[in-house]
Design goal:
Layout (H helix, E strand, L loop, with lengths): L8 H6 L1 H4 L2 H27 L4 H15 L3 H16 L5 H26 L3 H9 L4 H31 L11 H12 L2 H32 L2
Helix pairs in contact: 3-4, 3-6, 3-8, 3-9, 4-6, 5-6, 6-8, 7-8, 8-10, 9-10
Length: about 220
Amino acid sequence: MDVNFQFDWSAAFGSIPYLLPGIPWTLLISFGGLAIGFFIGIFFGLLRISPVRWLRWPAVLYVEVFRGTPILVQVLFIFYGLPQLLGSPINALVAGIAAIAINSGAYISEIVRGGVQSIERGQREASLSLGLSRTQAFRYVIWPQALRRMIPPLGNQGIISIKDTSLFSVIGVGELVRQGQIYIATTFTALEVYFMVALMYLAITWTLSLILRQIERRGLAGQ
């Protein structure tokens, strides 16, 4: 063991140009998957609160399966398992986006369910008494309030999904970790490179946190 090891800052900063191409892939996979997952989450979240039992059960099954299994297993199943069923390969980028979408969708569905159910029943009853239909009451009264309450947990899910993309190097997606692995294979500077990868992930998630904080403040100010 080399007790005289010195952190090589020049190697760390020298890896930046090689790591930067991984940022667009990381953002594309995470935000692309989250955009799809948001609509999946809304769909299954509303099914979860449906008064019709046979509509609730598919949503419950979806949430339990994809919240109860690791996203790494999910992306491996999509990338390696589904092609055996479909008879054709699946692009690594598509597999990564799909994994983020179905995984985040399961969590977002619970966020949607909790947000809608947090609105007091009296508001719906008051809306109906004013002559609004159930659909209008939900669209104009319940949903806007629920959406404001969902902003913090949705932001947290977004940050988690960005960090989850680091697992997709196993299928060859050229995100930050994969770019770092390629660079390390030729320079043998693992500590310095992974240090910079961590800083880049921190910069992305910290920036997203600031944006979400501003959105949350504006949402609260609009109440």
